[in-house]
Amino acid sequence: MKTAEIFHLVGFGLAHTVRTGRAVCEFAASNRQSHTKKF
Q1: d(C-alpha 27, C-alpha 9), whole Å
Q2: Per residue in 13-32, pLDDT tens?
């Protein structure tokens, strides 16, 4: 494997992890808000 390919794979994995983590955080935050605030 070339260094560029490894670098690309690592960057892609990191971006995917960050995107997934952010989505999970937003989902948890909205879940918490809906549980806390009951209109």
Answers
A1: 27
A2: 999 999 999 999 999 999 88
**Token pair for residue 9?**
């794979």
Alpha-carbon radius of gyration of the chain: 17
CA 39/CA 30 separation, integer angstroms: 15
Q: pLDDT value at position 37?
A: 65
- Token pair, residue 20, equals 């997934």
Q: What is the 3-state secondary structure (H, E, C) of the chain?
A: CCHHHHHHHHHHHHHHHHHHHHHHHHHHHHHHHHHHCCC
